[in-house]
């Protein structure tokens, strides 16, 4: 058999059936591999696409990456409806079931601890975008009458920009602090590149928050509530996600806990 | 969950989680393709190739 095993997630055994229409990466419906009280949710993928070399090439193909990421996400989403999955990094592939079992056995304890920690929790994403254009006073569109006018206008424009970024940062720190108080854990992602996100303005906060399902509604309302606070800033909420950003096993935790927000609070 | 209407998830939000989050498993049996650095390098190459075509809007700010 020339198929490899693609592992989506590790979870505890669950009774409910996955939605029938969920197809995984490469169109193959995911199955379950049970070992020592844990379940690996796996699919079979062709070696010609997922062996090291072809995968490396594929990852540079945005269309392929996009289709694969969405298929992976669809499986994790379906799992999230019935249990709390521990999602694996995209494109985690093993040669065969024995390889998957060996991995599960080797990490058994840490899987159990992480599943305990994430049980009943979801991840919410919050982003803030600052609109550069909104900071520019309208009269700047006027043509400068002289060189001196031009320099003055330029200084004013730079000052307006500086003040705008300063207030955007302050707002981001404040919101991050507030959300941290209402979440069990938080992770800061690198700001998103506007060319990739196709969002206008600069991304000044890109964070994930770990929130118990039962408190999700209140958390979402908290974010919705600050949306109109600053006219030049756009606050965006995404989720609920499976706890991707918090799935790192214990060893990762300290390194991933970087506190961007703290310095300015 | 009725608070937020689910929209199509943006690819960039998905990649933040799928390429930087999730459990990383490395070892002989994984063919070493789950290696985080490998995936990051490829994504960075992708991002910088996109960047070259789109000048930064902040270039005039010193």
UniProtKB/TrEMBL annotation, chain B:
The organism's place on the tree of life at top rank: Bacteria
The keyword Transcription belongs to this UniProt entry's keyword annotation: no
Primary localization: other
InterPro entries in the record: Gas-vesicle_GvpA-like, GvpA
Cellular localization per UniProt: Gas vesicle
Keyword entries, A-Z: Gas vesicle
Signal sequence, renumbered to the chain: none
Protein name listed in UniProt: Gas vesicle protein
């Amino acid at each position: 058999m020339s198929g490899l095993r693609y592992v989506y997630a590790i979870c505890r055994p669950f009774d409910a059936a996955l939605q029938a229409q969920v197809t995984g990466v490469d169109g193959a419906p995911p199955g379950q591999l049970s070992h020592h009280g844990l379940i690996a949710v796996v699919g079979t993928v062709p070696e010609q696409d997922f062996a090291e070399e072809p995968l490396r090439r594929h990852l540079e193909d945005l269309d392929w990456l996009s289709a694969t990421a969405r298929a992976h996400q669809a499986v994790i989403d379906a799992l999230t409806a019935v249990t709390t999955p521990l999602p694996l990094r995209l494109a985690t592939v093993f040669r065969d079931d024995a390889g998957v079992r060996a991995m599960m056995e080797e990490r058994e304890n840490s899987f159990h601890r992480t599943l305990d920690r994430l049980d009943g929790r979801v991840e919410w994403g919050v982003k803030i975008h600052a609109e550069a254009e909104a900071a520019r006073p309208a009269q700047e569109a006027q043509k400068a009458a002289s060189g001196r006018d031009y320099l003055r206008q330029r200084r004013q424009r730079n000052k307006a920009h500086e003040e705008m970024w300063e207030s955007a940062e302050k707002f981001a720190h404040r919101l991050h602090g507030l959300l941290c108080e209402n979440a069990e854990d938080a992770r800061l992602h690198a700001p998103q590149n506007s060319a990739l996100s196709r969002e206008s303005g600069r991304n000044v906060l890109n964070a994930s928050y770990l929130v118990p399902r039962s408190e999700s509604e209140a958390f979402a309302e908290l974010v919705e509530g600050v949306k109109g606070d600053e006219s030049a800033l756009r606050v965006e909420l995404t989720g609920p996600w499976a706890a991707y950003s918090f799935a790192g096993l214990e060893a990762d935790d300290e390194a991933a806990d970087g506190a961007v927000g703290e310095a300015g609070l | 969950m009725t608070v937020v209407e689910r929209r199509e998830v943006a690819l960039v939000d998905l990649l933040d989680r799928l390429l930087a989050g999730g459990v990383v498993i490395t070892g002989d049996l994984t063919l070493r393709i789950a290696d985080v650095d490998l995936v990051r390098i490829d994504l960075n190459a992708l991002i910088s190739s996109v960047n070259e075509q789109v000048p930064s809007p902040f270039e005039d700010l010193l």
